[in-house]
Amino acid sequence: MEDTSFAIHPGAKKKIAGTAFRDIGNLISYSLSENKSFIGKCEAGMIQILFYRDDIVRIMMDHKKEPTLSSSHAVIAEPEKVDLRVHDEDSYITIQSPLLTLFLYKNPCRIKAVDKDGRTMVSEKEKGMGHSPGGEVICYKEMDREDHFYGFGEKTSFLDKRGEKMTMWNSDVFAPHNPEIDALYESIPYFMTVNQGKAYGIFFDNTYKTTFDMKTYKETYSFSAEGGLINYYLMAGPEPKDVITQYSYLTGRMPLPPKWAIGYHQSRYSYETEEEVRELVKNFKEKQIPLDAVYLDIHYMNGYRVFTFDEERYPDPGKLMNDLKKEGIHVVPIVDPGVKTDPEYPSYLEGVKGDHFCKYVDGKMYNGDVWPGNSAFPDFTNEKTRKWWGDKHDFYVDKGIEGIWNDMNEPAVFNETKTMDTEVMHGNDGDPKTHRELHNVYGLLMGKATYEGMKAQLKGKRPFLLTRAGYSGVQRYAAVWTGDNRSFWEHLQMALPMCMNLGVSGVPFCGPDVGGFAHDATGQLLARWTQVGAFTPFFRNHSALDTVRQEPWSFGEEIEDIVKKYIDLRYVWMPHLYTLFKEASTTGIPVMRPLFLEYPEDKETTNLSDEFMIGDSVIVAPILQPDKNHRAVYLPEGSWIDYWTGEEYRGSDYHLVKAPLDRLPIFIKKGAIIALGEKKMSTEQKEEKITFHIYPSSNGGEYYFYEDDGSTFNYREGKMYEGVLRYQIIGNVIDLTFETKVNAYEPDLEKEVVIHSGDEELTLRINGEEKGNTDGRSRMIKASLL
Ligand code: MIG
């Protein structure tokens, strides 16, 4: 009935239960413990305040007792020593670090946080923290007219989440994703607020179902949970990028992926047989379309039993993997959590004997229906089960597999609630908790088990994991794809803000199914989507059973050529992308960025959802509608150069840009340098030559270039290459210097520079030596470096 107009029957108006929230009340007494954590007793709850760093403070409230600092599945940081000053000023107390001051008002207990420049980040007035008799907890904050909200992980709709109400409850949503769907596969209960260019972040580390309401009230926003404690971290920014660095300090950063994981990937539900896979690869080779990975969806298994291959469809998987590897192609099989309850199936028997499956409080095993039929679900909250599951991946590793695809790990179950009974218990390493409390971390912990198992077995090689579900911290183990989108133009549009917000949420390695999963793609849609995919951190074409084929050649030659052009472009841009992946792995700052991250004070960027940046100097402005060959592009301050034509555009303005079907508008900031490589058939093919493209401006510029072996963890022992290219303009001379910073890995690269000097005639000097003038016509000069 929910799907028909009956849902809005005039007699159907539901009564909204008046939830009686009890305010925390007045502060009665307080103490400071040895580790300088502040404990306060209020009329209706106890609070604890603990600084992690000068710029990060954790605030907790328990309405029953003193909050316990129990361990978190998301946070990996430990509190550092912070120099705090505490003053009691009668009506309030201040707790001050060098970067952040908390004002704790007493009657009633309210919090205000101010940064070192006196900027008020959060404040509470009428309403503060509270709880309901049912155990829900809520925290209100004042909302300023200029507050804009970003992050929240994987959400539909536009970039700025002001005016949205969102739920965090990992959900398998096959129904078309639309702006009304407020809970998808990932739960990242974190956001940043940007107000006139300055930012702070809040991470509400509560694994129950949580709700963020930036909509209901005009002057307050709130975050609340069905249970547990108020437990949030306030991060002081002040720049939006600082907040991402602070958040990823708490929850961890993406390990540098193997290079093959950031090449082009081809998937289908499903490539059903070995012959089909070989045929697919043959097509790629014949058509000279680069390819790094092929995915095996659920048909590869024997009756959907994980850790098996169907012997008829895939008679010799080891040989298949090996043959493909020789062609530079990796295979990524799907692994779901559900284990078929079949007493003749070894994995099930092992799981039962080893006590690895989720159970009710009375000890009865929980079973639910998924692909293999009735199934049991590993309890990934236990270390011993994670170890068991991780070890089982030797089944794949032994066959030459280095990447795994985790699906259905919300966990999704085919029933009314779409998931496990919430009263199922998780062992949680001796601290048992209900599924209601730990639902949102099931996918994260499956990812942890898988990543760690693969890592141990790959003996120094970097594993690749792709996951559908996750919680804060998921970036430590996996890349995230945005689940079952459809071949709708609207979903291509939505993919941009969705991935940008995932990046803001500490998950730099993400992307949508290129071409759309469900529904039927068209050639035009695939062409435009591949143009976007060439620049999303994760780049995989995937489509569903019984939909129109979506491989690059499925729509005739014209489309094939365009699709190939942009897959090629991905490989040409690989050196620059890889350098940005490295940056993301050390700072958390994403590869794909909303413009406000670079230009936070520019109001035009506040809700700019149809353009994105790659690093800090490239803007991609794709066409996101059918039958369009032009669009308005916003370019922020400075000047911008059209990547294809070299034409210069004035910044801080909108421009009407032409973009026929084979054209993706790309703009490079004047002054910037980008490092590009050569076309390749896969990342396994050695990079031979790097070309540094310089778009000179009178201010000069520099570029850090990173390279390593692309496949092992040796870079962690310093086996990497880092060089910095700098230029200056003196009169009409462009003076370049190239300095090798780290040379513990010898990339054996030819290096070249191309100067895109626009209208200026420039003389090129490299490390002091003259190399000639920019050509009068093309205003370009090429020279070899070193
Ligand atoms: O919907 O394994 O999101 O990518 O192809 C069925 C089959 C379960 C959902 C995933 C999709 C995958 C599909 N899976």
UniProtKB/TrEMBL annotation:
In terms of superkingdom, the source organism counts as Bacteria
| Domain Glycosyl hydrolase family 31 C-terminal intervals | 588-674
The record, for CDD domains, names: GH31_glucosidase_II_MalA (cd06604), GH31_N (cd14752)
Record keywords, A-Z: Glycosidase, Hydrolase
The text of the family note is: Belongs to the glycosyl hydrolase 31 family.
The EC code for this enzyme is 3.2.1.-
Q: Which PANTHER family is this protein grouped with? A: ALPHA-GLUCOSIDASE
Domain Glycoside hydrolase family 31 TIM barrel, first and last residues per copy: 255-580
GO molecular function annotation: hydrolase activity, acting on glycosyl bonds
Domain spans labelled Glycoside hydrolase family 31 N-terminal = 47-213
What general EC class does the enzyme of this chain belong to? hydrolase
Q: Which residues form the DUF5110 domain?
A: 690-747
State a single Pfam family of this protein. Glyco_hydro_31_3rd
Q: Which organism is it from?
A: Thalassorhabdus alkalitolerans
Protein name (database record)? Glycoside hydrolase family 31 protein
